[in-house]
Amino acid sequence: RKEVEQDPGPFNVPEGATVAFNCTYSNSASQSFFWYRQDCRKEPKLLMSVYSSGNEDGRFTAQLNRASQYISLLIRDSKLSDSATYLCVVNGGNNRLAFGKGNQVVVIP
Amino acid sequence: EAQVTQNPRYLITVTGKKLTVTCSQNMNHEYMSWYRQDPGLGLRQIYYSMNVEVTDKGDVPEGYKVSRKEKRNFPLILESPSPNQTSLYFCASSPNPTLAGGGDTQYFGPGTRLTVL
Predict the structure, then answer these.
(1) Residue in A31, A44, A96 closest to B48 by CB
(2) For residue range A3-16, what is the model confidence (pLDDT) as tens digits?
(3) What percent of chain A has a predicted confidence (pLDDT) above 70?
(4) Cβ–Cβ of B103/A44 closer than 8 Å?
(5) Where does residue A93 fall: left (phi above 0), alpha (psi -120 to 50 degrees), or beta otherwise?
(6) In this complex, which of B33, B45, B103 lies closest to A32 when CB atoms are compared?
């Protein structure tokens, strides 16, 4: 099983709709979880950390399910500017982070 | 402005010609790291450094070297580049080395697109 798995998509989302996707991780000892956003050919940027209690930042909501070892990201009221690849990132132990391949989101007018 | 810079941003070279990609951060971060990103493979860590003079291998260190003589700089060296090292490279830094792999934000440079012919 890969350290971090994501369905690459693409997820084609009508503008204004809600989109959600999950990311599974294999290391049950992982303590830190993040979602990063990456625009085409640009550097990844932190979107949000994922806390045990879940957290929300505007239209974005992240959840953690330790029992099933997955984190999720939900985007409400999708904007054209949300089109990007969303990278799931989990600490893999030994001072390193493990990155998923990303969920590609395309918001359609 | 707080940032991570990389140079060059684009490089086309030939097999076997030694090259160095520089990375510099002005945030006084202790942790620095190099990644490569390839289609279908995602971001993979090459090397990382917890502090000055402390470096460790990541997932794909073969064919690369690094050094950390100063806190702000973390150059990536390809002694004898080969075509399979054609990739998009990112340098990143993070403030807290004990959390960097475990819980602290990483700030990425703009990337270096390397082509080895």
Answers:
(1) A96
(2) 899 988 899 999 99
(3) 95
(4) no
(5) left
(6) B103
